[in-house]
Design a protein that fits this description.
Layout (H helix, E strand, L loop, with lengths): L1 E12 L12 E2 L13 E7 L9 E6 L6 E7 L11 H4 L1 H12 L3 E5 L19 H17 L1 H4 L1 E11 L1 H11 L21 E5 L7 H8 L12 H8 L1 H7 L9 H4 L1 H9 L2 H4 L7 E5 L14 H14 L4 E5 L4 E2 L6 H11 L6 E12 L1 E4 L6 E6 L5 E5 L5 E6 L2 E3 L6 E7 L2 E7 L1
Length: about 425
């Protein structure tokens, strides 16, 4: 008899009440940008966290201090080891985006987040949190802005996220995760919704499960059967940086395939794992022209191509893509800022309902049959529709999905392991 933790979902209604935040807004000087908005103002370096108030902070720019405005949140890139929220008003591209938003009555926030050690840092190889720290900071920034929406003059029902490189991957992570609001949290900020109206990913990484780079992104990258492997990625980036990415608990590339903690970590940061048809619309742009993945493993156009193919396969309501290396362009001339405006105009995320998660111990008769299995494996998990992962004898993920029937027709004979919830069972494929 297996004892599983099952999450029961109860919907309830409540009135959103936003706290007070004393913000000093100043007029935006023309030396930063020139906009046609009536009374453009900004506030800089507002903290949203307490672990590092310098990096856990954001800038906000408003068309006016009267009324409320839809919001675009910019998340900077830099490989999670560098970059700054200041790019929104110091770079040419940032200034163009900011001007467009303010001209069209859209507010813009630019966030910083805690970073991983870079290659020149004496702390390289010592990070104990990994990339989830950066992602969760972005989540909290979104929730914080929603919580203080009244004082920030923001419409909390109309929010989009966008960025380049690491900022693009973070935007994807936010957009593809189910609502991460925790209505039972002591911190009221964490009770806020994390849903967004749309996301834009510019020169993105496809996922932060780095093993997927080997199996999904760079497999047969040249059409001649050549693969860019995890060992190649580790050698190029350096083991310490690779280890920091997953919180300093990696002993080897093989370790991430067999260590249950690392398997769970990879799943938590895997955009592909969380993608489904109910996610918000996406805009994917890649102008990268690298040939070999080693030339630019973080921004190679195959990240965007693989992401696009996966999004189309799951049946997302809308995906716009401009991927020059693969002659993909279904944007019809619509730029990513216009894409965000269109969805801000039409989207409305309900803030009067939320989902409460109650975890209880429940006896579940978990079984798989037949074993050995033929073409189909059946999962009996007390009539639930479970998510599952299948690993080969080397610990590599070979199949993932949801449901009570697993099609094994394309798998070779051998020994496999299936993970359902937190339980792992062994079976043979005949």
């Amino acid at each position: 008899m297996k004892i599983l933790n099952l999450s029961l979902f109860l919907c309830f209604y409540y009135v959103v009440s936003f706290a007070q935040l004393n913000v000093q807004f100043d007029s935006i000087p023309s030396s930063i940008i020139t906009t046609t908005s009536s009374n453009p103002v900004y506030a800089l370096n507002l903290p949203y966290g307490t672990d590092d108030t310098t990096l856990q902070s954001f800038h906000i720019f408003l068309p006016d201090t009267i009324g409320t405005f839809p919001l675009a949140i910019y998340i900077h890139g830099g490989g999670f080891t560098g970059g700054t929220k200041n790019k929104i008003y110091t770079s040419n591209s940032g200034k163009q985006e900011l001007t467009y938003f303010l001209d069209n009555g859209i507010a813009c926030a630019s966030i910083d987040y805690r970073l991983l050690p870079n290659s020149n840092s004496p702390l390289l190889g010592t990070d104990t949190d990994g990339v989830i720290k950066c992602l969760n900071d972005a989540k909290r920034a979104l929730q914080y802005i929603r919580y203080y929406a009244d004082d920030l003059h923001i419409d909390p029902e109309k929010v989009v996220v966008y960025g380049g490189s690491a900022g693009a991957g973070t935007s994807l992570w936010l957009a593809t995760r189910a609502n991460m609001a925790d209505p039972t949290a002591n911190d009221p900020v964490l009770r806020m919704s994390t849903e967004v109206c749309a996301a834009v990913a510019l020169n993105t990484q496809s996922t932060y499960d780095l093993y997927r780079w080997e199996t999904d992104v760079f497999d047969d990258f040249d059409g001649n059967g050549t693969n860019f492997t995890m060992d190649s990625i580790e050698a190029l980036l350096g083991f310490d940086r690779y280890n920091d990415f997953y919180g300093g608990i990696v002993d080897s590339t093989y370790d991430i395939l067999v260590d249950p903690v690392l398997i769970q970590y990879r799943q938590d940061v895997d955009v592909f794992y969380h993608l489904d048809a109910n996610d918000p619309p996406l805009y994917i742009q890649s102008l990268n022209s690298a040939t070999h993945p080693a030339q630019d493993p973080l921004h190679h156009h195959l990240h965007s191509k693989t992401l696009y193919d996966t999004v189309v396969a799951v049946g997302l309501s809308e995906v716009k893509a401009d991927i020059t290396a693969h002659n993909i362009d279904n944007t019809n001339g619509e730029g990513y800022t216009e894409f965000m405006k269109r969805h801000l105009d039409s989207c409305s995320i309900s803030m009067t309902t939320n989902t409460k998660y109650i975890t209880e111990e429940k006896e579940v008769q978990l079984s798989i049959f037949p074993n050995p299995a033929g073409q189909t494996l059946y999962i009996n998990a007390d009539k639930i529709q479970p998510e599952y992962l299948i690993y080969d004898s080397m610990g590599r993920i070979v199949r993932r999905g949801r449901g009570n029937e697993v099609d094994l027709s394309s798998m070779h004979q051998g020994v496999y392991f299936i993970q359902v919830e937190q339980e792992v069972l062994k079976f043979l494929k005949s």
